[in-house]
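Structure representation.

___
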Amino acid sequence: MKHRKLIFGGLGIAALIGIGLVFVKATWSLNEVPTSVTEVKQTVAPNHIYQSYRFPYKLTISTPKAKLYTAPAGTKGSQYLGTVGTKHLQNHITGQIRDDLNHNQRAGYIKFKQDGHTYWISAQQTRFRGLNALKGHNKSIETAINAGLKLVGHSKYDYGGG
């Protein structure tokens, strides 16, 4: 029993030292330019795309400080490009693709094109526009949808509750 504790304890310490060395090597080296923390996070524990789908909706970017990337942030190979304000982009965009990360639909990124360049932006930095075009012509269905929308966010639902 004591031997198992010693073995597992030694393996745990060795793993911590190994991870520490990876961080030290990745962030500081005498012969290389220091690597950013974002790049280190991408190599140690990158984000994974678990769902990707077409997203052809008209959107408005909510702030000029919204960050832009070459791919969804935190995925391997993605690079930070700047903000909407620094790139002087219009705040009205049309989405093309949405990628959701790490089994979390709230952590999604939307791909769009503007001025001949492709960008990825956090879905949380956008909001829908022009939704009236999606309304149908069946009055009873639209009434039911509107009644349901008034209740969104006001229920006593508890995830996993009885």
Q: What stands out?
A: The helical segments are 2-27, 37-44, 139-151. The longest strand covers residues 104-114. The longest helix spans residues 2-27.
